[in-house]
Amino acid sequence: MDVIPDVEMGPSWMPDSSRIVFVKNDRQEYNPIYVADLKQKTVVPLKTETKMNHDITCSVDGTIAFRAQVDQWDQVFVMKLKD
Fold first, then answer.
1. φ, ψ dihedrals at 16, nearest 5°
2. Which residues contact 36 (CB under 8 A, 6 or more apart)?
3. How far, in Å, CA of 29 to CA of 79, rounded?
4. Alpha carbon of 22 to those of 5, 63, 71, 81: distances in Å?
5. Kind and range of the H or E run holding 33
6. Which of 11, 12, 25, 33 sits CB 3.0–4.6 Å from 58 for a disulfide?
7. Whole-angstrom Cα distance, residue 35 to residue 83?
8. Could you tell me the pTM of the whole model?
9. How far is the C-alpha of 33 from the C-alpha of 26, rounded, in Å?
């Protein structure tokens, strides 16, 4: 629930198949990014310092990419998550 249903890219599985990275539909928090760990049964926010995140995806090496609004324009951000 409350996941941004992106037209192009949405919630994405991490390479270990035990975590999902997603953008939460929360306008008050500017659509933050979260990581859900299915084994640990936790959902934790990912600190990005970006706003209005969307179109998140993950590569086979664990690098995530997403779009975020910066000065009313979208920019693409790329980051590697720690294990």
1. -80, -5
2. 19, 20, 21, 22, 42, 43
3. 20
4. 10, 13, 23, 13
5. strand 33-37
6. 12
7. 12
8. 0.84
9. 10
d(CA 67, CA 20): 17
Tell me the residue type at 19: R
**Structure tokens given for 24:** 């939460």
**Alpha-carbon distance 22 to 46, whole Å?**
10
Residue of 21, 28, 65 whose CA lies nearest to 45: 21
Residue-wise pLDDT tens digits, 10-64: 689 999 999 999 999 888 898 999 999 999 999 999 999 899 998 999 999 999 9
pLDDT exceeds 80 at position 7: no
Asked whether residue 70 carries a pLDDT value surpassing 70, the answer given is yes
Chain centroid to Cα 83, Å, comes to: 15
Q: Which residues contact 9 (CB under 8 A, 6 or more apart)?
A: 55, 56, 57
